[in-house]
Amino acid sequence: MKAIDGAGVPAPSEETGAPPLGEVLEFMRLLWAVDHQLKSTSKLMETTLGLTGPQRLVVRLVGRYPGITAGRLAQILHVHPSTLTGVLKRLEKRGYVDRKSDPLDARKALFSLTDKGQGLDVPASGTVEAAVQRAMSRVPRAQLAGAQDVLTAIAEELGVGSEQLHLEAEAASPSLSLRAS
Q1: Could you tell me if residue 26 is inside a domain?
Q2: Does residue 111 share a domain with residue 61?
Q3: pTM of the model as a whole
Q4: Which one, of 73, 41, 42, lies nearest residue 58 by Cα?
Q5: 113: how many CB neighbours lie within 10 A of its CB?
Q6: How far apart are CA 95 and CA 117, in angstroms?
Q7: Neighbours of 39 (CB within 10 A)
Q8: Any bridge partners for residue 110, and if so which?
Q9: Which pLDDT score is estimated for 173?
Q10: Do both 25 and 72 map to the same domain?
């Protein structure tokens, strides 16, 4: 595996003649680069679109599941519900999401997009999902499935429930669950 970074630059070991990092460290280095770029792109999105990457992801999910609870959003995103509290409050304050009490359980809130929020629930350039979509379009489907398997295995090892990940992957698409929209 020839290791390169996001800018197409050879890995440090190839550049300096230093001993190779090995598969695990090279993979971790690339994960770190992805994480860094996700954060950088998220900040840029806030400047250009008025939403961070996580906020936009929540808008996109609420758009797909009108009337969703915070608990269900947390399950989909593999985060603790308290992690979403601030995101949902900011989206509500900005007029992108509407919160209503669940008529069956007043302790729960149901979230849906406002007209203003629906305007953001569309594909847009300069977003993380646009970059992911472009990257995915360059990779054969079989390799995408393999990448998903690796990322799922890493998430499982880091503590995300494997059964939940697999169920969500299958629900997203019977043929391939890594799908951009």
Answers
A1: yes
A2: yes
A3: 0.75
A4: 73
A5: 20
A6: 7
A7: 12
A8: 69, 100
A9: 52
A10: no
pLDDT along the chain (181 residues), means of 10: 55 61 92 95 94 96 96 91 93 97 91 97 94 96 94 86 55 46 38
Contact criterion met (CB below 8 Å) for 48 and 126: yes
Residues paired with residue 68 on neighbouring β-strands, in sequence order: 111
Pair of tokens at residue 32: 């770190």
Residue 85, phi-psi category: left (phi > 0), alpha (psi -120 to 50), beta (remainder): alpha
CB-based contact 63:121 (threshold 8 Å)? yes
Residues 162 and 76 in one domain: no
Q: Quote the CA–CA distance of 81 and 107 in Å, as a whole number.
A: 14
Q: What's the pLDDT at 106?
A: 87
Paired with 113 in beta bridges are 97
Q: Say which CATH number the domain at 76 has.
A: 1.10.10.10
- 45 and 129, same structural domain? yes
Residues 138 and 152 in one domain: yes
178 occurs within a structural domain = no
Whether residues 111 and 61 share a domain: the answer is: yes
| CA 126 – CA 148 distance, rounded (Å) | 23
Residue range(s) defining the domain that contains residue 29? 21-49+123-172
Number of independent structural domains in the chain = 2
CA dihedral 88, 93, 96, 101 (to 10 degrees): 60
